[in-house]
């Protein structure tokens, strides 16, 4: 009898959690959808990714066989710029509420802060998956149209830029996952520090300054180690489709490093969110 009662209590608790989580996700989606500027940031992320990728595809030439360029990576160059808009969006998901005081209302409606943060992460992941997929597919489509005219042809050793090509598919899927993980880093850092400008500065510093510091180091072995732990350098290794043996880290392993950064940011953010006042 006690076992049956315990099972019922567990079932009731699980059902209550699912109900609370569903309401929290709906609330977060409503807030994000109605917040001013969020949609524009997503459009900016897509536009920057596609525009920079197209510009790079137009600018780089491959006049001879074996020119050493990675056609797929060239088409996806815009990810390194579009991610900045994703970072700002992710940070504002949390910091925007702290700035307006709305966070108190959020925690009043959803006292379980971990559930509230998980709901934010779920909604953020969904919209970045959608916008990232659009940006990556458009970049590859347009890049596949432009690059052959610049010498990236089968005669020069390049297969057509197509998702039917295994490495290209991996680069496309990995690029979308890369943007999602960048968004989760932004969410975790913003939860930890609360203030938008500080959080954006920290995340962008990790992304863009880390590679600069790496180049300052003259020891090749240390430089390689730094590249292996750099969020952007390691994460974007997943875009490579040629000369994989020359990479400082493997494509999926590099994305795993970025996932570790995201997990750490969310863990620290969750811990501080639980311990501090709203």
Structure description:
α1 crosses α6, α2 (38-59) runs antiparallel to α4 (79-100) and α8 packs antiparallel against α9 (220-229). It is built from eleven helices and no strands. The two termini are 42 Å apart. 77% of the residues lie in helices and 0% in strands. The protein has helices at residues 2-34, 38-59, 71-75, 79-100, 102-109, 113-146, 166-193, 196-216, 220-229, 231-235, 251-275. The protein has 278 residues and is an all-alpha fold.
Q: Strand fraction band?
A: under 5%
Tally of helical segments: 11
Shape: globular
Q: How many runs of DSSP E, i.e. beta strands?
A: 0
**Major beta-sheet overview:** none
Write the H/E string, N to C.
Answer: HHHHHHHHHHH
Class by SSE composition: mainly alpha
Helix content: over 70%
Radius of gyration, CA atoms, in whole angstroms: 21 Å
The rounded distance between the terminal residues' Cα atoms is 42 Å
Low-confidence stretches: 1-7, 9-13
The mean pLDDT is 88
Key phrases:
278 residues; mainly alpha; 11 helices; globular
Fold topology:
Elements: H1 2-34, H2 38-59, H3 71-75, H4 79-100, H5 102-109, H6 113-146, H7 166-193, H8 196-216, H9 220-229, H10 231-235, H11 251-275
Helix pairs in contact: 1-6, 2-4, 2-6, 4-6, 4-7, 4-8, 6-7, 7-8, 7-11, 8-9
Compact overview of the structure:
It is built from 11 helices and no strands. Helix 1 crosses helix 6 and helix 2 runs antiparallel to helix 4.
